[in-house]
Every structure is written in C-alpha cells, then in structure tokens.
C-alpha cells in the first residue's frame, strides 16, 4: 500500500512538472465563419477538511456555547484561464485564493477590431487610462487600478478613447529637494550603542603576554590591548581566530536549533565562581556576513541587528598566525543528536553591569542617527555641558575636545598633526556606512583612576567622572553622570526611496531634474513594499530634485469613485497633434454626516491641448556652412499649448433642513469621543461577592459591613435558550445575517435561608461580582451607567471601584489548588482530592454555614445532638450542607446548582467553561 502511494506521488510529480506553465484546453468549439471558441486553463484546487471531536464529558449550560464536534474546511485555488472567441475576443483571468488582496487578482475581456473598423479595441475588467499628452487632467498622465470598460475608436485621422470605470486606487505624489538631507544630531555620552559590538575573549580586550600549554606543547601568547591606538592604528598580536561560530538563543525549538550551554569559562565549565551565571537553552547558528562581521585579527564581532533578551555565545580556535599551531580551543560543537553544544558566553539573557561577562561589550560606540553619511560636510564636536558657558574646547589647554578624546590626530593631508577636524579617513574611529562613531578608549568618559579601561588623557582628568554610566543600571544614576554631548552635522545620501506599501504596478512616474527616468534603466521598484532604488547616474547626484507620482491601492475604502470621459486626438505628423479631453469624476461617501475635509465630490474637467513641431532644414544647412560649427541634429521649432478648466462641486450633498444648495459639513460631531465599558453578562465571569458595606442614609456614611450570616441563597445563570431580541427591544431590526435575533440575558434568583426568617428584609443580602479589564479601571470621565432590568422584587445596588474578592471575609486565599509541601502555591492542576469547592472541604465536613468542621463530620454532630457548630435548619441538605455542589443537566431549566464549585472538574459530568 505504501509502495503504491510512493509510485502515485512520483507519477503525479513527474506529470505536474511536465505540464507546469502549459495551458490545458478544456473547451473547443468550431463556430464556422466566426472562427473557433476555446477555453484553456492552468491551475489547481486543493480542498482539505478536518472533523474535530472532543471526547470530553463537558456539560454546557447555554445553547450558544461551543459545540464539541465541528467540521473545518480549507480550500485553496490558483486558476489561470484563457478564453478566445474567433480572432477578436479574448478573455483572461488570473485568480489565487492565497493572495492577500483582491487587486492582485485580475480579469480582463478584450475585443480587437480590424484595421479599418471604427471600433479598434474594447477592454473590460482591470483597465488603465493613459493621457501622456496632457498635464492638467491627471498629474501623472495615467491612471492605473481602474475596473470598468474602455474603448478605442478611430474616425478617419481622429483617435477616440472612451472610459467608464470605478477607481480602486488613490493618487499620491512625493517630492525630494536634493537627494542628500542635512542633519544635526546630539548624542549624550551616556547613550552609547549597546548589544552591537563584542570582544570574543578578554585577551583581545585587555591584552595578554603569557604562555599556555596546548597538547603538552608550551605556546607563547602575545596580544596588545585594544586601546589605546598606536598612531591611529590597532596593533595585532600573534594569534588569529579560526573556525568561529556564533549562536543566539531562541524561545522555541525550531528547525536547526540545538541544545547547549553558554559558559563564562568554557575551559572550566564547573568553575564554582561562575556556576550560577552559566545559561542553558536552544540556540541557532548565525551566518557570518549576513548576521555579523568578525575581525579575526582583532578578536571582536559586530552584529547586524542588536540582541536584546537573547543569550549570545560562540566557539572558536585561536591559532599562532606564524606557525599555524593551535593555541586555544574555546567551546565545542553539538553532537549528532543536536545537544551538548558548549559555548563561550558573550552576552547573557539579561545583561547588567554586575555580570562577569559585561566587560566584553563595547561601551565606546555611538550611533549617529543615520547610515551612508557623506564625508563631505561631516562635522563632529564634543561639548562639555557642565562648563559655563557650554563649550567644545577645554578651557585650560584651548584644545577642542575631539582632539583630547583622540578623534583628531591627523590633518587633511594625513600628517600626524591635529587640525580641529575629525579624522574622517580613519576606519578605527568612523564607520560612515553604518553611521557609527568609535571613541578610542574602552570607557572614554570615565577616569582611568576610577575604572579600569578609563580615559588616560591628562587634560581630561578634571572633567570626567567615575564612570557610573558604565557600572550602574539605575536610570537616575546613569543620567546623573551625563557630562558631554557629541554633536554631529552631516548629509546622508540615499539612493533608496520608500513610498509605503502596495503601489499600483506600472502607475509610477519618476522625474529627476525635469527628466523622466526609465524603469529598469534608471531605477528599480518593488511595488508591494513601495521601495524605489535609483541606479547609475540617477543615484550619483546628491543635489538632484526628485518627483515621484504614483497610485496606491486602498486596503479598505467605503467610498465609491467613478470616472467617465473621452479623449479625442488627431495626429499632425509624428510629433504634432491637437486633442480634446472631457472627464467626469464622482466620489461618493458612505457617511451621511459629512465631515470637513472628507466631503463627496463631483468634478467635471475639459481640456484642449496641442503641439506643432517642424524641422528647419535650411537653417541646419546654413549652420553647417559656417566655420567651426558642425551640427549633428536637425534644427526644429516646437510650439505647445494647453488650456483646461475644472467645474467643481466640492460637496454634492445639500442641506435639506436649511435649503442650502452649497452643501453642509460638520466640523466635529463628537461621535469619536464616546467611550463605552461593557462588563460581560456571561455566567462564568461572575462569582459570589464579598460582604458589601452598609450605607447609613441618616449619617450619610458607610458605617460597616453586612453580616455573613445574613447572606441569602443565590444562583445566577444565562437561560439555555436565549431570549428573542425584540422581546426586549421591540423596535430593533434583527436578522440572521446580523446574528442579533437572540440576546443572552443574566438572571439572578435569590431567597432567604431558613435561619433568616426573622431577619429584616433590609438586612439580608446577596451579591455577585466581576472584574473589569485593566484598561477600563479609570472611569473618572464616565457620565452614565446603563442597565436593563426586569423584575420588581428586591433592591439593586451597584458598586464600582476597588472591591475585595474575599467572599467569606476570612482574609485567606480560597483555592482548590492545594500547595505542595514547603510551597505557597499549588501545581496548577485540579486533582481528585482537590475538587472540594471554595469552602475547602468535602460534603462530610461542611458545617452548613459555608465553612468547614475541623475534626468530626456534620453527621457526627447530628448524631451527638451537638448543634452549636453546625446549621441544622430545614433548608440544609444533609448530603451537601454548604450547598456548594455543582450539578446541571444540559438543557434543563433547573439552574440551582449551576454555580457550584465542588465536583465541577473531576466528577462524572464536567462543567464546560
């Protein structure tokens, strides 16, 4: 059987691969003189279904609650249909159910006339309108995203285009004055770039000169410290990084993930000093060049994207660059089962200054706010905010701070002499591509006397702090350590323009310095993301003005926009013409209350335009006879003109109440200011309330709480069969489609208990409570409370605010989830011995007052005649003294036990919800 399936799958794949891209003719009819009619298609339809049955003994207390058995169907289809009737009519349809938006599906019907026919072409379905000769009718000269009918006719020398369509897109235009944008940015010294740069080993950060033993061979290690720079350069040691692999933790066990541990010291995983800091998890390997860049000589990495709450670890080998001998092996790859990955930790899940691996993160890199910065015009100043007045120079030495902080040691010619201009040519200081500034010190804004790796420049001693920004995670302490700001001025040239999502394909017009650019030659465009990438000479001029006109699909539009019109044009040679255009545009809106700026529109526009161009052959020959001058093109004169008029109706809905024919609009109808909080009326969201406060009307104060002994008997429910909506609101419109033919109601039934027969009615009480969502806690702006009631017995009081949930007033959390030995919380599972109800005891030990008996059973006290501790009134059920048992038969009208909490989770009938 399995072999047969394999053979069938193989044949299916082979057959589908042979037919891929080919159309299959499903209908073919010979129509005689009219030609042949055919219908061809290519595609597939996939239908999958599931029947889901939950084998649980759940009892529903409402007909509207979820059923146990249901069917789920999923249909996917991709169809490409091509039809043809004779030689003139074609039909095409491209439809895919997996496409996210309707406009990605296309249908088109076309009629092609003969050369001498008046009607040359008729198109229906997804169409476009192009008027390249006009400038005033549509600002891009073309309309895409239309659905309707278009015809092209010819009357002698006159070409006529007529259109009637619905517009499904919105026209937009963007202008960019110069491709380069000038910016000034200020970055505080405490805002260094975190979680981007990391040393892979302390040796490369601090430097080392020692000997190690590897495979019984003594190897010499000599690595200079990363800072300070020597003549603006980093010196490298005798070791080079090989076989480097970088891993990042993930929360799920996805494909390719391996289990491992990131150690502070992978050479001694059991080091007691760090045993609590090692972290285990699932890891995925990052790709070099894609996710990060490694400096194998200097021993650090730069991540493409910052890591936040992930563990970062690596494994690598250090080799002697001269001999190729292995000096140190750090970490180990996972075994064949994808486990036991051993890594050197570069970053813990939660990074903080007290973590032993904290020093491996760079703390001297600052992001300048943009990328691809032009070197021309780039300026950097470091300003002392605590000097009076603020200054970018040291008062004692008169040197600029960029010189004192090591950012200026060369002049523009590369001579080692400061010139008060940042050394833009030094890659160890600036990364112009990524927009990053590296100040050459491990802790540039801390004194070396206070913090290892601090700044050693003598001229900065009196102006630097102890480095709290590097040693504290308390925001107030870090912000209090702010002394300097880095001010940058730059212009960033970007060859990429982002217009936003879902552009209409083919609708764009890109104009640079009044020259229309060509797609594929001067730029590339991604219509879904709206990204334009300039290419070639178009991307080289940072001062060019750019104008982009385009159409954008509207995801949701309740407005209807229609276009009707015609264009007639007579060509007078190859480059001359005269034409006329008339278009009617109507935009209707769904709302009857018209808002200012969002009115319905009806516009009519007419346009006359023409161009005449003639060549002056005699002028060309005359110029060619002149000395020195030699023409390579024909001399010509061109005259072009256009006149257009719009007849607008900016608001086509008149004010009937005042007779104003000019339309009416609301500045604001304040509908958006309405805020509604709707507590649920579903039974399962309500619980018995705590004891309410008693309000003394004579004193006008809350003078105490009601007695627990005066709590009456109460049960609440939603009727199994909901109430018809029009029984509550007779004038409300209902329908099956709207799903509002029935309405759930919340019913409360209450009565006195037997022992309360002599208690005054005003002293007995019952109550239920529910919680609001946290976003609804603030009700200070609420003005009304609306509730619909049916019934005349009792007095209803509603309390809103912070209300206790201690229903029995014992100041103890009542829960069935019994804590295990030595713990304060349970295991989160309801087990058979725990399904006691909220009173905490089974029926045998209930006292009839809602509490529990400590030693003997309820029946014991009955037998002994000791009734002081128990309730023996006539309404007490000997089998359930506290009345907290759950019992309900699906569809029954008896809801008296529907809110019980004992036996509702582990009995023979389990409550749903």
What is the topological layout?
Elements lengths: L1 H18 L4 E7 L5 E18 L4 E2 L9 E17 L3 E8 L9 E7 L6 E12 L11 E14 L2 E10 L1 E8 L3 E9 L8 E3 L2 H5 L1 E7 L2 E7 L15 E12 L7 E6 L15 E8 L5 E4 L4 E4 L8 E9 L5 E5 L10 E7 L17 E3 L11 E6 L16 H4 L25 E2 L4 E3 L4 E5 L6 E2 L12 H4 L3 H6 L3 E10 L2 E3 L10 E4 L2 E2 L6 E4 L4 E4 L11 E8 L6 E12 L5 E12 L12 E15 L1 H9 L10 E14 L37 E2 L4 E4 L4 E5 L7 E5 L5 E2 H4 L13 E2 L3 E5 L16 E2 L88 H7 L45 E2 L2
Parallel strand pairs: 3-48, 16-22, 27-28
Antiparallel strand pairs: 1-2, 2-4, 4-5, 5-6, 6-7, 7-8, 8-9, 9-36, 10-35, 11-29, 12-19, 13-14, 15-17, 15-20, 16-17, 18-19, 20-21, 20-22, 23-26, 24-29, 25-26, 30-34, 31-32, 31-35, 33-34, 36-37, 37-38, 38-39, 40-47, 41-42, 43-46, 44-45
InterPro entries: Cell_surface_SprA
Protein name: Cell surface protein SprA
Organism: marine metagenome
């Amino acid at each position: 059987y399995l072999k047969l399936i394999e053979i069938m799958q193989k044949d299916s794949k082979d057959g589908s691969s042979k037919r891929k891209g080919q159309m299959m003719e499903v209908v073919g009819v010979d129509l005689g003189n009219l030609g042949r009619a055919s219908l061809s298609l290519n595609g597939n339809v996939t239908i999958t279904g599931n029947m889901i049955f939950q084998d649980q003994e759940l009892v529903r207390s409402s007909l509207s609650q979820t059923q146990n058995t249901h069917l789920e169907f999923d249909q996917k289809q991709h169809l490409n249909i091509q039809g043809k009737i004779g030689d003139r009519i074609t039909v095409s349809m491209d439809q895919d159910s997996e496409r996210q938006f309707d406009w990605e599906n296309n249908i088109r019907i076309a009629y092609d006339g003969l050369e001498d026919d008046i009607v040359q072409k008729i198109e229906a379905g997804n169409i476009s309108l192009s008027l390249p000769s006009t400038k005033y009718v549509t600002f891009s000269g073309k309309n895409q995203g239309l659905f309707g009918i278009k015809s092209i006719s010819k009357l002698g020398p006159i070409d006529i285009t007529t259109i009637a369509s619905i517009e499904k897109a919105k026209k937009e235009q963007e202008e960019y004055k110069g491709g380069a944008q000038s910016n000034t940015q200020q970055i505080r010294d405490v805002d260094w770039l975190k979680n981007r740069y990391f040393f892979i080993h302390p040796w490369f950060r601090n430097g080392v000169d020692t000997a190690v033993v590897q495979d019984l061979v003594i190897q010499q290690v000599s690595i200079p410290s990363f800072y300070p720079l020597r003549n603006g350069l980093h010196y490298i040691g005798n070791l080079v990084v090989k076989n480097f692999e970088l891993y990042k933790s993930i929360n799920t066990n996805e494909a390719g993930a391996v289990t491992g541990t990131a150690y502070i010291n992978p050479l001694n995983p059991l080091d007691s000093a760090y045993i609590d800091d090692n972290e285990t998890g699932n890891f995925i390997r990052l790709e070099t060049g894609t996710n990060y860049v490694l400096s194998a000589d200097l021993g650090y990495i730069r991540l493409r994207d910052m890591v936040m709450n992930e563990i970062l670890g690596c494994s690598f080998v250090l080799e002697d660059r001269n001999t190729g001998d292995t000096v140190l092996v750090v970490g180990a790859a996972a075994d064949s089962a994808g486990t036991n990955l051993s890594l050197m930790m570069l970053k813990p899940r939660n990074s903080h200054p007290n973590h032993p691996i904290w020093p491996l993160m760079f703390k001297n890199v600052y992001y300048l706010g943009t990328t691809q910065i032009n070197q021309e015009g780039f300026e950097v100043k470091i300003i002392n905010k605590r000097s009076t007045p603020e200054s970018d120079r040291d008062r004692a030495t008169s040197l600029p701070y960029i010189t004192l902080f090591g950012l200026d040691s060369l002049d523009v010619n590369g001579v080692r002499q400061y010139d008060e201009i940042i050394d833009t040519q030094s890659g160890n200081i600036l990364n112009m591509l990524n927009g990053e500034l590296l100040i050459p010190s491990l802790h540039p804004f801390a004194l070396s006397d206070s913090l290892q790796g601090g700044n050693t420049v003598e001229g900065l001693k009196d102006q630097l702090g102890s480095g709290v920004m590097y040693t504290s995670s308390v925001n107030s302490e870090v912000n209090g350590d702010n002394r300097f700001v880095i001010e940058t001025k730059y212009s960033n040239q970007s060859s990429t323009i982002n217009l936003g999502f879902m552009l209409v394909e083919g609708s764009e017009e890109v104009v640079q310095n009044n020259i229309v650019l060509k797609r594929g030659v001067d730029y590339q465009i991604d219509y879904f993301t709206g990204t334009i990438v300039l290419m070639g000479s178009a991307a080289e001029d940072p001062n060019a003005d750019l104008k982009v006109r385009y159409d954008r699909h509207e995801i949701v539009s309740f407005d209807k926009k229609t276009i009707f019109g015609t264009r007639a044009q007579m060509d007078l040679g190859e480059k001359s013409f005269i034409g006329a255009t008339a278009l009617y545009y109507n935009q209707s809106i769904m709302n009857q209350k018209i808002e200012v700026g969002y009115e319905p529109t009806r516009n009519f526009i007419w346009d006359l335009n023409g161009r005449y161009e003639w060549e002056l052959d005699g002028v060309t020959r005359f110029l060619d006879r002149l000395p020195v001058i030699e023409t390579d093109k024909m001399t010509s004169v061109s005259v072009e003109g256009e006149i257009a008029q719009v007849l607008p109706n900016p608001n086509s809905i008149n004010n009937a109440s005042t007779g104003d024919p000019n339309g009416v609009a609301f500045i604001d109808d304040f509908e958006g200011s309405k805020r509604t909080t709707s507590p649920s009326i579903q039974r399962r969201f309500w619980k018995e309330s705590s004891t309410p406060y008693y309000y003394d009307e004579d004193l006008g104060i809350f003078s105490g709480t009601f007695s627990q002994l005066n709590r009456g008997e109460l049960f609440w429910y939603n009727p199994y069969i909901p109430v018809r909506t029009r029984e509550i609101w007779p004038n409300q419109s209902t329908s099956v489609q709207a799903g509002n033919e029935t309405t759930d109601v919340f019913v409360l039934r209450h009565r006195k208990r037997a022992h309360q027969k002599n208690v005054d009615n005003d002293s007995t009480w019952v109550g239920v409570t529910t919680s609001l969502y946290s976003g609804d806690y603030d009700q200070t702006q609420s003005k009304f409370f609306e509730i619909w009631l049916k019934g005349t017995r009792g007095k209803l009081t509603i309390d809103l605010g912070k209300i206790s949930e201690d229903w029995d007033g014992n100041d103890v959390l009542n829960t069935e989830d019994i804590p295990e030995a030595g713990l304060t919380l349970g295991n989160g599972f309801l087990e058979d011995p725990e399904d006691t109800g909220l009173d905490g005891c089974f029926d045998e030990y209930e006292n009839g007052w809602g509490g529990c008996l400590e030693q003997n059973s309820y029946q014991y006290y009955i037998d002994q005649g000791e009734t002081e501790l128990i309730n023996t009134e006539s309404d007490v059920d000997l089998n359930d003294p506290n009345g907290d048992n759950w019992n309900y038969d699906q569809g029954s009208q008896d809801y008296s036990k529907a809110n019980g909490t004992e036996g509702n989770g582990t009995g023979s009938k389990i409550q749903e919800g």
